[in-house]
Amino acid sequence: MAERGAGGRSDVVTADMAITTLYAEHWTGLVRLAWLLLRDDQLAEEVAQEAFIAVHRRWDSIRDHARATAYLRRAVVNGARSGLRHRGVEQRHLAREQSEPTSYGSVPEPSPEQRALARESHDAMVRALGGLPQRQREVLTMRYYLDLSEAEIADALGISAGSVKAHAHRGLAALRHGMEAAR
To answer: In angstroms, rounded to a whole number, what is the distance separating the alpha carbons of residues 169 and 183?
Structure first.
């Protein structure tokens, strides 16, 4: 869009200048429009940003630059519709996946009996672990809770890797014995 200004020079409105002006004037209203359609703050801002990007990208092909605001509103509404369709697809997929008890990634809810047994077993394990000598308890905790290697445990405790192996072996034997006795 070129216009003749005072003194006969040509004033060209570039896409950057136009978008800067449109952004300052319409950003808040367009985000509010998107939010009213989507009810999601982050998605509303993203839809408005995408609308400004689209107008900037197509600025040279827009015939009537005075209608850029209408184009932005239309882009926001279309973006919100797309976001709602995407949200619907996600919700249907999740609902279908959760309803299939053997589907990959879904974990069936344990029964109250299973939860009680798991809790009791966990409590027994923690009690048995608490009954071990300090060094065995440290080695087993680092090995199975933190998933550290023997070398990492040896470095952390300031002992040799052979000592880590010995403490782990004795600790596991004591835990096994303690858990069998608890049954």
So the answer is: 22
The answer to whether the CB of 178 falls within 8 A of the CB of 172 is: no
How many domains in the chain?
2
pTM of the model: 0.49
Contacts of 127 by beta carbon, 8 Å cutoff, 6+ apart: 182
* Structure confidence by residue, pLDDT tens digits, 17-66: 999 999 999 999 999 999 988 889 999 999 999 999 999 999 988 888 88
* Residues 172/140, Cβ–Cβ less than 8 Å: yes
Instruction: Determine the pLDDT at residue 12.
Output: 63
Q: What is the CATH number of the domain that holds 153?
A: 1.10.10.10
Token digits of residue 109: 């809810």
Is 48 a member of any domain?
yes
Distance (Å, whole) CA 125 – CA 118: 10
